[in-house]
């Protein structure tokens, strides 16, 4: 056996070190290093195996070895995020906050795949089989030919998979699984890593597609599924705000499809319902035009999505004014505020700024810059934009506006939802979309001056 000294592992990135420190040197996170028993070593001796690694030439791949067609579940929002369906023998991680709806999503997906003729096993380490069946009943899925197992011991799970040979295995969750070759407790980094490694390696070898569920906690206390991300082909995150019914399944890594693709669901009393037209849902509770509210025509993956930015600007009672953001990047907000102040003469010093994306959606596109700037100035000047207008465009530090990709798709989506005007940067070819007047602006200062009559007086 190799030395069995304890080692220290970062719960965020999985890096190991021989001593504890407050901050992980690999990923820079604070307070994420925990003490762990080391990985069990293999048999002593040379690491050269007797079964030699076999190589083949790329051109020698026969048609049987080429990727087989994907299986679609029939849940369009899921199939699209997977890149067009489930790839046989692929490994997928579905991460998300506890209680967000991962088990619900995957039980529904399991039922749909099973009904498509995919032999599916759902292994629950968190609930007894009877509890899973109760949930299935509530979701109206009891007639689906999904096999259930309530198991946490990795050896037992592998034995079951070996005996049953399913085409799809769902492991809910990876934090509850434990391998008896690792001495540390279930949920620890070593256990999560070992279990994920064994499961994915086994599944690849046997041609089983595998979906691992992983809880992420904000504090990073329990081993986050981050350590698993490198081992799998596809990483999906299930996001949403607890108070909202919307849930977004987002591909952050996908070897078999585009990353950044999203699927939108709504949590109902009978499980998750697909949302085929997210724009309509995200804009559904919009009232009269109000100061600080701006509709952004965004693109999520391959699909246009309209969302509403809401800003509130108020005199700050504190020496240090507040900047609070939900659904967008706070660093980006600071940049937009600085550009508005120094290029457009619209100061925000002494003012508290709150920015929110309605509906619990997260936006990461730089194309939202102009919509955010418009929301901020609109709130500050207490002047509402017309309700029939959408805005998009990237802002550079000089205050110039940059054209963004897929202008035509954005305009078409706006037109579909009844908007009549779009404000977008100059540059590039201007597509014409019937029913949408396109108002093209060159830089932020003239936009602020034209639309709000603000700025220039700082
Ligand atoms: P769950 O799938 O158990 O979350 P996770 O596996 O991510 O921890 O979902 C838990 C929440 O979903 C729970 O608070 C109740 C809610 N829910 C519904 O609103 N409707 C339903 O039909 C189901 C099954 C759950
Ligand atoms: Mg669960």
Automatic annotation (TrEMBL):
It comes from the Bacteria. InterPro entries: AAA+_ATPase, DNA_repair_RadA, P-loop_NTPase, RecA_ATP-bd, Ribosomal_Su5_D2-typ_SF, Ribsml_uS5_D2-typ_fold_subgr, Rubredoxin_2. GO terms for cellular component: cytosol. ATP binds at residues 96-103. The keyword Cell inner membrane does not apply. One of its GO terms (molecular function) is hydrolase activity. CDD domains: RadA_SMS_N (cd01121). One of its GO terms (biological process) is recombinational repair. A motif (RadA KNRFG motif) lies at residues 253-257. Residues 352-458 are annotated as: Lon-protease-like. The keyword Zinc applies. Keywords: ATP-binding, DNA damage, DNA repair, DNA-binding, Hydrolase, Metal-binding, Nucleotide-binding, Stress response, Zinc, Zinc-finger. Residues 67-216 form the RecA family profile domain. DNA-dependent ATPase involved in processing of recombination intermediates, plays a role in repairing DNA breaks. Stimulates the branch migration of RecA-mediated strand transfer reactions, allowing the 3' invading strand to extend heteroduplex DNA faster. Binds ssDNA in the presence of ADP but not other nucleotides, has ATPase activity that is stimulated by ssDNA and various branched DNA structures, but inhibited by SSB. Does not have RecA's homology-searching function. Belongs to the RecA family. RadA subfamily. The middle region has homology to RecA with ATPase motifs including the RadA KNRFG motif, while the C-terminus is homologous to Lon protease. This is DNA repair protein RadA. It comes from Shimia isoporae. The lineage of its organism: Bacteria, Pseudomonadati, Pseudomonadota, Alphaproteobacteria, Rhodobacterales. The gene is radA.
